């Protein structure tokens, strides 16, 4: 409880650390790119050491904009995956105009289960055709608001997924849906993950990273994916309180 309180309300901003990481990676010769850019094959033998920056925007658009501003200052490209609850088309278009990637952090399986009070994974799977159509409709709406085509998406992990033992990216275990929606990659696809020598995710304090710090990885690994979440880099009292209350209410009503 104390760690959660510290992480949500007391933690000093880690944004200077993030900018220092961007600077150090550049100084060490790493290309810093989005998922979409990483998937474009370079000429043979020309791939520099690379960090793919993936941001899952579960909450906190204020800190998201600050992360983006620091990347612009350092000339870094990255991918930002927005949930339906965090869509900000103005910010997303700014991200795209700069040359980074703004895309969709989807969670239709969890949302459908909570909305219809389903607690059995087999029952949820029986509704996958409807859930997939919901995903396709949401993707089209986001593309319309963004004004550009989305080619990569990222599955969100919700408490409902953990209880159901059913992950959201099961939606895309359907090649015809991927083809119809023009999805080249979901960020947990093995075809993408196998391209990385190391996959790092940020964590709440005191751990901060798993399995190791990106500072320690620089120079040791050629191809790195770094997954970050705004909430792990700066506290936002109002947003964190809203999210905590929403999770509590969803847990009580599901």
Task: Tell me, briefly, the overall form.
Answer: globular
Order of helices and strands: HHEHEHEHEHHHEHHEHEEHEH
Number of helices: 13
Low-confidence stretches: none
Tell me the span between the first and last alpha carbons.
Answer: 23 Å
Structural class: alpha/beta
The beta-strand count equals: 9
Describe the protein's architecture and organization.
- By secondary structure, the protein is α/β, with parallel strands linked by helices.
- Helix content is 48%, strand content 16%.
- It contains 13 helices and nine strands.
- Strands 1, 2, 3, 4, 5, 6, 7, 8 and 9 form a nine-stranded mixed sheet that branches.
- Helix 5 links the parallel strand 3 and strand 4.
- Helix 2 packs parallel to helix 4.
What's the short story on this structure?
This protein is α/β, with parallel strands linked by helices and 254 residues long. It has helices at 2-10, 15-27, 35-38, 61-74, 89-98, 108-115, 121-126, 128-146, 159-164, 175-181, 190-193, 214-217, 237-253, and strands spanning 31-33, 50-57, 79-82, 101-106, 152-155, 185-186, 198-202, 209-210, 223-228.
Helix/strand layout:
Elements: H1 2-10, H2 15-27, E1 31-33, H3 35-38, E2 50-57, H4 61-74, E3 79-82, H5 89-98, E4 101-106, H6 108-115, H7 121-126, H8 128-146, E5 152-155, H9 159-164, H10 175-181, E6 185-186, H11 190-193, E7 198-202, E8 209-210, H12 214-217, E9 223-228, H13 237-253
Parallel strand pairs: 1-2, 2-3, 2-9, 3-4, 4-5, 5-6, 7-9
Antiparallel strand pairs: 7-8
Keywords:
254 residues; single chain; 9 strands; globular; alpha/beta; nine-stranded mixed sheet; 13 helices
């Amino acid at each position: 409880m104390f760690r959660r309180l510290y992480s949500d309300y007391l933690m000093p901003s880690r944004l200077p650390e993030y900018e220092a990481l961007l600077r150090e990676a550049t100084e060490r010769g790493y290309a810093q790119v989005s998922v979409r850019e990483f998937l474009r094959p370079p000429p043979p033998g020309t791939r520099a050491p690379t960090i793919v920056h993936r941001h899952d925007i579960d909450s906190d658009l204020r800190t998201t904009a600050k992360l983006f501003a620091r990347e612009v200052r350092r000339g870094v490209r990255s991918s930002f995956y927005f949930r339906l609850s965090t869509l900000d088309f103005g910010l997303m278009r700014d991200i795209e105009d700069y040359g980074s990637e703004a895309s969709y952090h989807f969670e239709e399986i969890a949302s459908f289960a909570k909305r219809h009070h389903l607690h059995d994974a087999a029952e949820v799977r029986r509704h996958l055709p409807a859930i997939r159509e919901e995903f396709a409709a949401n993707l089209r709406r986001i593309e319309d608001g963004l004004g550009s085509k989305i080619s990569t998406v990222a599955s969100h992990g919700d408490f409902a997924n953990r209880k159901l033992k059913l992950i959201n990216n099961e939606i895309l275990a359907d090649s015809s849906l991927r083809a119809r929606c023009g999805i080249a990659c979901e960020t947990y696809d093995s075809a993408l993950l196998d391209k990385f020598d190391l996959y790092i995710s940020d964590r709440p304090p005191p751990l901060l990273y798993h399995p190791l710090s990106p500072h320690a990885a620089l120079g040791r690994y050629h191809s790195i994916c770094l997954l970050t979440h705004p909430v792990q880099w700066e506290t936002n009292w109002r947003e964190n309180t809203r999210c905590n209350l929403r999770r509590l209410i969803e847990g009580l009503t599901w």
